[in-house]
Design brief:
The complex is a heterodimer of chains A (380) and B (345). In chain A, 39% of the residues lie in helices and 15% in strands. With 380 residues, chain A is α/β, with parallel strands linked by helices. In chain A, helix 2 (11-32) packs parallel to helix 12. Classes of the chains: A alpha/beta (380), B alpha+beta (345).
C-alpha cells in the first residue's frame, strides 16, 4: 500500500502529467477563446492545490477557483452565534472539531468564549466526545456536528455509542451540509461562470460518483471526482480539461481506487438511520432546500436545538467581507478588500480565513500575496 | 452579555502570530532592554565593572523557558528532560556553553510523589549529560485544579564560546539553510499521545541536548552565521522569523526536507503540516555556501539516521519564505497561526 501511495506522490510522474494538463489547457483555451475556469469544491483540494503550488505552475493556462468546499467556511453566522450562546450556558460543554474554534460569529468566537470562561473542548472524533460525556456526567455535552457527507457516518456511530451507554448528557447540534444540493445551487446561479468542476473525493466515497451525474446531464457541465495525492489531482485536472476541450459534458470518476459509482451503502445507511434532509443556511449562499441534515424524530432527544431552545439576535455580518462571493467563485480571495489587511489568519473576519481548508487561509498561507493580481479581469 | 471581553487565548502561547503580537505589543512595550529587543533564543549580556565585581567583558548568555506539556511522560522523554534540554538548547544555539540552570516547580496538589521523583531524576540526568549544574530552585504547590499536574520553569546561564559569531545581521544572500535531522517528530509524538486520539504511529520525541553539536559547529565551521532551534511553530515559523529579522528571503526545497514517513502519515491523518510541528532536538543553521557540506558532515555525526540536510538558501529579499514544491510550484510560508495542538513544550 505504501508503494502504491508513493507512486501517487512521485514528483517525476507528476511533472509528466503536468505537461498533459498544460496541453489540454491550451486546447480548452483555444476552444473557449479564453482561459478555462475550474472550480474545486473540496477544502482538502483547495489546500492541496495551494501546497503543490499548482496555481503558480498553471499561471496563464487555467483559472483555478475555490468553491463552497469547506464545511467550516459555509457555516452561517447565525449558527456560530447559537453555538457561542450554548457555550455560555452554565453546565454546558461544547465539543467541537478544532477548526470551528476560531470561526467568527457576530460577537467573538468559541476560542474567545473559552478564554472568557465558557467550556469548550476540542476533539478529533465524535466518539471521543461521547467518551468525554460518559466521564463527565456533571456537564451537558453538545457536539457541533459540522461537515459534509463524509463526517456524518462517524456522527452516526457516536450516536450509536451514546445510546448504548444510555447517556443523558450528550447532544448533537447538527450543522451538516450536503454537497449535491449546493452544486445544484451553483449551477443554477447565472453569475457563477465555471467550465468544469473538480468534485470532492471523500464525499464521493460515501455518496458515489453517480450522485453527481446530474451536473453533466442536466446542466451540460463536465466534472471529475478527484483524489488528494499529487498524481490524483493532476490526472483529474487533465481529464477535466480534456472534457472541456472536447466539449463533452460528462462526469468522470478520477478516484476509482476508492470511489464507487454507488458509493458506500453502509455509510449511507448510517446517515439514513439517524438523519433526514432539511433546509440549511449557507454562508454567502443563503438558504438551500434539503441541503442540510437534521436528526430524525426518533432521535430528537439528542437534538441540541430542541433541548436548548435559544433565540439569538439577527447576525451582524461584517462590512466588506466577500466570503460569500469567494465561495461562489465570483472573486478570488485576494480580490476581497479585507484580504490580508483587516482579515488575516490571526484575526479572521470571515470564515474562509479561519479554517485551514478555507480558500482565503490556503491562499494566504501558501501562495505569495498578490498572486491574485493575474486574475483581475479574468472574468471579463 | 453580547461582547466578549478581550482575553488571553491559547493561541497566544503557540509560538505563532498571536505570540509575536503579544510580545511586540505588550511585553516589549514595558520591558524595553536592548538585549530583549533582539528577540533571540537567549540574551547575551556583557557585564561591566560599574555593575559590580564581575570582570569586564564577560559575555554571559541568559535564557528562560517554562514547560507545561501534556502528557508529562511521552515516548522519548518527559517534562523534566524537556525542561533541561529546551533551555540548554536555547543557550547552545545562541553560541553559549551552558553552565548553570535554575528550576522553578509549580505542582498541583495531589500530584504523585513517584512521578515527581521520576521527573526530578530525569532533570538531574539530562543536566549532567548537557554539562549544566542545577544551582537554584523554587517549589510552589497550588490547590487541586489550579494547575495541570506540574509546570516547570528553567533559567539557563552560559558563557559565550570565544569563536561564536552568530547574529541575524550576518545572514546574507547565497548562504545555505541546513537542518540537523528529521522534522516534526516531537510535535507529532506528543499529539499522538493525546488522550482519546488512539494513534499508534511509533514516533518518538527527538528531545535531546544540542550542546555538543552546536559547540562542534561553532568550533569547526567559521562560516556559520546563525543557529536556531525550531521548537514551537516548527521549522516554517523559525525560518520566517529568521527571514524577517535578517531582512532576507529564504527559499526551501520541499524535496530536501527530512520528514520521516511516520510523521508525514500521522500529520496527514490529523490535518497538520510537519513544517509547523515542534522539534526539541534539532537545529537550523545558516551557513556560508562554501562551508555548508562541512557543517552537514558534522550534523550527520550526531544524526544516527544521517538525516541532516541542506534544505535551501538565502536570497535577497524582505522577509519572505518560499517553498519550492516537488513539481516545481512555489508556495509561501508564514508564521504559524492558531494551530490546534495540545501543549507541546
Amino acid at each position: 500500500m505504501t508503494k502504491v501511495l508513493a507512486s501517487y506522490r512521485d514528483p517525476e510522474l507528476g511533472k509528466k502529467i503536468l505537461a498533459q494538463v498544460e496541453q489540454w489547457a491550451d486546447r480548452a483555451c483555444h476552444r473557449l477563446g479564453r482561459w478555462p475556469v475550474i472550480m474545486e469544491v473540496c477544502g482538502t483540494h483547495t489546500v492541496t492545490i495551494s501546497r503543490l503550488g499548482l496555481r503558480s505552475l498553471l499561471r496563464e493556462k487555467v483559472i483555478l477557483k475555490s468553491g463552497p468546499g469547506c464545511p467550516v467556511c459555509v457555516t452561517d453566522y447565525g449558527d456560530i452565534d447559537r453555538a457561542i450562546a450554548l457555550a455560555r450556558l452554565p453546565g454546558v460543554t461544547i465539543a467541537t472539531f478544532g477548526d470551528m474554534m476560531r470561526v467568527p460569529g457576530s460577537h467573538g468566537s468559541l476560542e474567545e468564549v473559552r478564554g472568557w470562561g465558557g467550556r469548550v473542548e476540542v476533539f478529533y472524533s465524535p466518539e471521543s466526545a461521547v467518551d468525554f460525556a460518559h466521564c463527565h456526567p456533571e456537564t451537558q455535552v453538545v457536539f457541533l456536528a459540522v461537515g459534509f457527507e463524509t463526517t456524518v457516518p462517524a456522527i452516526g456511530l457516536a450516536i450509536e455509542k451514546a445510546q448504548a451507554l444510555q447517556l443523558g448528557n450528550f447532544y448533537i447540534f447538527s450543522l451538516h451540509k450536503l454537497v449535491p444540493p449546493v452544486m445544484r445551487a451553483l449551477l443554477t446561479d447565472k453569475e457563477v461562470m465555471v467550465d468544469g468542476y473538480l468534485l470532492p473525493g471523500h464525499v464521493s466515497t460515501v455518496i458515489g460518483s453517480n450522485a453527481f451525474r446530474f451536473i453533466g446531464t442536466e446542466f451540460g457541465v463536465p466534472a471529475v471526482v478527484a483524489g488528494f495525492e499529487l498524481v490524483d489531482i493532476l490526472l483529474s485536472l487533465a481529464k477535466l480539461l480534456r472534457l472541456i476541450a472536447e466539449g463533452r459534458p460528462q462526469v468522470l470518476n478520477g478516484y476509482s481506487r476508492l470511489v464507487r459509482e454507488q458509493g458506500n451503502p453502509r455509510a449511507q445507511a448510517l446517515i439514513e438511520r439517524y438523519f433526514e434532509p432539511s433546509l440549511a443556511s449557507w454562508r454567502g449562499l443563503g438558504n438551500i432546500e434539503a441541503s442540510g441534515l437534521k436528526l430524525r424524530l426518533a432521535y430528537r432527544e439528542l437534538d441540541a436545538g430542541l433541548h436548548f431552545p435559544l433565540e439569538v439576535p439577527t447576525p451582524r455580518i461584517p462590512a466588506g467581507c466577500a466570503c460569500g462571493e469567494v465561495l461562489k467563485g465570483k472573486v478570488f480571495p485576494q480580490q476581497c478588500q479585507l484580504f490580508g489587511r483587516a482579515c488575516r489568519p490571526e484575526r479572521p473576519v470571515g470564515p474562509c480565513m479561519v479554517s485551514s481548508e478555507g480558500a482565503c487561509a490556503a491562499y494566504y498561507q501558501y501562495e505569495a500575496q498578490g498572486a491574485g493580481d493575474q486574475w483581475e479581469g479574468a472574468d471579463e | 452579555m453580547n461582547k466578549v471581553e478581550k482575553a488571553v487565548l491559547l493561541a497566544h502561547g503557540d509560538g505563532g502570530k498571536l505570540t509575536h503580537q503579544l510580545i511586540q505589543e505588550l511585553f516589549l512595550a514595558y520591558f524595553g532592554h536592548p538585549a530583549l529587543q533582539e528577540l533571540s533564543d537567549a540574551a547575551v549580556i556583557t557585564m561591566t565593572r560599574d555593575q559590580g565585581p564581575a570582570p569586564d567583558g564577560l559575555p554571559l548568555v541568559v535564557t528562560t523557558d517554562s514547560f507545561v506539556i501534556d502528557p508529562i511522560f511521552f515516548p522519548g522523554g518527559d517534562i523534566g528532560k524537556l525542561a533541561v534540554c529546551g533551555t540548554v538548547n536555547d543557550l547552545a544555539v545562541s553560541g553559549a556553553r551552558p553552565l548553570y540552570l535554575t528550576c522553578g516547580f509549580i505542582i498541583e496538589e495531589g500530584f504523585p510523589l513517584r512521578d515527581l521523583e521520576a521527573v526530578v531524576q530525569s532533570m538531574a540526568e539530562w543536566a549532567r549529560i548537557a554539562g549544566a549544574a542545577i544551582v537554584a530552585g523554587d517549589t510552589k504547590v497550588v490547590p487541586r485544579g489550579h494547575a495541570d499536574k506540574i509546570f516547570i520553569n528553567t533559567t539557563g546561564i552560559g558563557l559565550l564560546l570565544p569563536q561564536a559569531q552568530l547574529g541575524y545581521q550576518r545572514v546574507g544572500p547565497g548562504d545555505k539553510v541546513l537542518v540537523s535531522g528529521s522534522i516534526g517528530d516531537h510535535g507529532l509524538c506528543v499529539l499522538s499521545q493525546r488522550q482519546g486520539l488512539g494513534l499508534q504511529i511509533g514516533v518518538e520525541s527527538d528531545c535531546c541536548p544540542l550542546t555538543d553539536l552546536a559547540r562542534d559547529l561553532i568550533a569547526q565551521v567559521p562560516g556559520i552565521k546563525l543557529m536556531r532551534d525550531p521548537t514551537r511553530g516548527g521549522l516554517a515559523t523559525t525560518l520566517k522569523e529568521i527571514a524577517l529579522a535578517s531582512q532576507v528571503d529564504i527559499q526551501v526545497e520541499e524535496s530536501e526536507l527530512p520528514i520521516r514517513r511516520e510523521v508525514r502519515g500521522g500529520a496527514e491523518i490529523l490535518g497538520l503540516d510537519p513544517l509547523y510541528l515542534a522539534n526539541e532536538g534539532k537545529l537550523v543553521a545558516i551557513v556560508a555556501p562554501d562551508q555548508a557540506s562541512q557543517a552537514l558532515d558534522i550534523m550527520n555525526q550526531y544524526s544516527p539516521a544521517q538525516e541532516a540536510a541542506i534544505i535551501g538558501q538565502v536570497l535577497l529579499g524582505r522577509g519572505n519564505v518560499y517553498l519550492k514544491t516537488a513539481i516545481g510550484g512555489t508556495k509561501y510560508l508564514d508564521l504559524l497561526v492558531g494551530a490546534q495542538l495540545p501543549r507541546i513544550c
